[in-house]
Q: What sequence folds into this?
């Protein structure tokens, strides 16, 4: 009973992922699989960022750097060393984690807006560096040979497999987010978020704790990056490190509610759903970005806790299920 | 020898550009200094300044330098509007809120701008001759732009140190609560500061438009440069921003003589992160 209570917050997130994973099969439309893939990717990225942003309270404006870097490492290993997708994904996640560890030890000393600016700088520096780095193909990037898909049953089957892997990665991100939240480590993070100096006085070893939060929030983005660019067939500096994508993830986390497990998932769903609608609607398609911006502004100004945070404040009985 | 020639040709140009970059950064760093808000709508406002010059020049035939005055006034008003609508409510909230609020303004401007002007490049077909300086040729538009940037810096300095509203701004930047106790209308002063910051951004955009082609998205790279310069000069230190701008301009002048110019952003952003880590208060000290 006690374990059930402790993990009841996982119920909704898992239901959402399962629903997304079977949605294309149920409707039998390939287009739905593409939308579901985009949503699952967003869920994985938003849930990962939430570990740093929601639990620890550090605003990373350049989180996409781990996605891009992992993707590059993975594609490099896939083409140059003919690794399998699985090992390449693991390597992508691992190198992103190592990158986060190295960066984290340096830049997590900065607080507030200084940290946010540093993450922007790192993303831009990495983009500019990869643009000049011949091993990663410079400005043209890395393009996969079509034969790469053969071991996975051809290109069509590889896309189907990628989709299920995306669902798996989204689930992994959610589990990570949940277990960080319910662990003692996560309590330390939340103490840092509330008051870093007080947390340190209470015995949280803040530099190490923050660095590990950064590492945990970087691993899944690295793996998702490998998967996405594997599916995409090529990777270029501009696709790998888009600053606006970093901010889109931030918006998703804010929309659903930072610091909760379900929030980033709902935020990703809502944001991608809204974007899909706006891009295709005749009236909004030209000013799609403005409408998203206006909506973001309304949320930031009036519901800063996000949808889940707002519900938790209003209806305390929901707190147990809406973790 | 070839490198020296290249250097002599590109360095003066870099220095002139540096003044204009410095002007853009001054707007960003002023806002940070007064209210601890990083204005992520800085880039689109620079771009709007560019379009302001473009339309004044092509539609009314107004000289781009005379056009600076309406651009500056509109920039000021736009800044006050942004402050009232988007920033005022989150001024005391955690940084994430103000970052996202100004970013949503960024999205709104870019979205409307893309719908109105598309993202294709524009340019202001205007020339102000050129000057020979040794082996280097200086474009008149860049020279005037640098002079205008210096003029605005001087004006800002006089405004902040010699006029009553300027002194109010410095008081609010120093300690808002104490300033309020002294009877300073802090909300109005904050709105004015934000307006001044966006005014400087719009003016720098208007100047850049006279020598570079631009699109609605062009402001993004100058916004990033403004962050680098702001940190170099010390966030919240407007005069430091001018020196920061010069350093960046000199770097952009020197680096291409020694390696491919695509390495420029690597060095710029690398330097940016290093300065943040080693000396977050910048080379010339942060606010006051």
A:
């Amino acid at each position: 009973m006690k374990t059930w209570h402790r993990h009841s917050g996982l119920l909704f997130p898992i239901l959402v992922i399962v629903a997304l994973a079977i949605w294309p099969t149920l409707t039998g439309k390939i287009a739905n699989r593409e939308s579901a893939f985009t949503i699952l990717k967003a869920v994985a990225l938003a849930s990962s960022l939430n570990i740093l942003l929601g639990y620890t309270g550090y605003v990373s404006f350049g989180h996409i750097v781990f996605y891009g870097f992992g993707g590059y490492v993975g594609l490099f290993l896939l083409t140059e060393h003919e690794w399998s997708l699985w090992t390449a994904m693991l390597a992508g996640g691992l190198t992103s984690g190592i990158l986060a560890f190295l960066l984290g030890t340096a830049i997590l000393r900065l607080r507030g807006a200084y940290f946010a600016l540093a993450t922007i700088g790192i993303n831009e520096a990495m983009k500019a560096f990869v643009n000049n780095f011949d091993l990663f193909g410079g400005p043209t990037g890395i393009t996969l040979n079509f034969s790469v898909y053969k071991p996975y049953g051809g290109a069509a089957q590889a896309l189907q497999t990628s989709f299920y892997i995306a669902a798996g990665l989204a689930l992994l991100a959610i589990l990570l987010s949940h277990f960080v939240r319910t662990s003692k480590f996560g309590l330390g993070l939340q103490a840092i978020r509330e008051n870093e100096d007080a947390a340190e006085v209470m015995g949280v070893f803040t530099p190490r704790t923050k660095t590990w939060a950064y590492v945990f929030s970087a691993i899944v983005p690295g793996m998702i990056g490998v998967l996405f660019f594997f599916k995409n067939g090529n990777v270029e500096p501009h696709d790998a490190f888009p600053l606006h994508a970093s901010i889109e993830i931030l918006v998703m986390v804010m929309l659903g509610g930072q610091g909760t497990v379900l929030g980033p998932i709902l935020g990703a769903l809502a944001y991608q759903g809204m974007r899909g609608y706006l891009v295709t609607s005749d009236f909004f398609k030209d000013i799609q970005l403005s409408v998203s911006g206006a909506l973001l502004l309304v949320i930031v100004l009036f519901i800063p806790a996000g949808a889940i945070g707002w519900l938790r404040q209003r209806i305390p009985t929901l707190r147990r299920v809406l973790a | 020898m070839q490198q020296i020639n290249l250097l002599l040709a590109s360095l003066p140009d870099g220095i002139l550009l540096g003044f204009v970059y410095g002007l853009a950064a001054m707007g960003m760093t002023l806002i940070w200094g007064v209210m601890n808000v990083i204005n992520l709508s800085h880039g689109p406002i620079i771009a709007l300044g560019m379009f302001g010059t473009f339309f004044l020049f092509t539609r009314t035939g107004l000289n781009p330098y005379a056009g600076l005055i309406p651009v500056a006034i509109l920039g000021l008003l736009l800044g006050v509007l942004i402050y009232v609508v988007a920033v005022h409510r989150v001024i005391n909230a955690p940084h994430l809120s103000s970052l996202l609020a100004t970013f949503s303004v960024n999205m709104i401007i870019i979205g409307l701008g893309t719908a109105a002007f598309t993202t294709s490049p524009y340019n202001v077909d205007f020339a102000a001759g050129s000057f020979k300086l040794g082996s280097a040729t200086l474009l008149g538009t860049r020279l005037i732009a640098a002079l205008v940037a210096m003029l605005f810096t001087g004006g800002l300095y006089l405004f902040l140190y010699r006029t009553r509203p300027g002194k109010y701004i410095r008081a609010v930047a120093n300690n808002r609560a104490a300033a309020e106790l002294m009877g300073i209308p802090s909300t109005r002063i904050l709105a004015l500061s934000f307006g001044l910051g966006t005014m400087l951004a719009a003016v720098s955009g208007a100047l850049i438009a006279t020598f570079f082609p631009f699109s609605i998205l062009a402001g993004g790279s100058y916004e990033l440069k403004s962050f680098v310069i702001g940190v170099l000069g010390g966030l919240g230190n407007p005069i430091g921003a001018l020196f920061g701008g010069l350093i960046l301009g000199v770097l952009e002048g020197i680096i291409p003589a020694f390696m491919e110019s695509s390495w420029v952003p690597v060095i710029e952003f690398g330097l940016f992160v290093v300065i943040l880590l080693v000396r977050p208060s910048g080379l010339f000290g942060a606010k006051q």
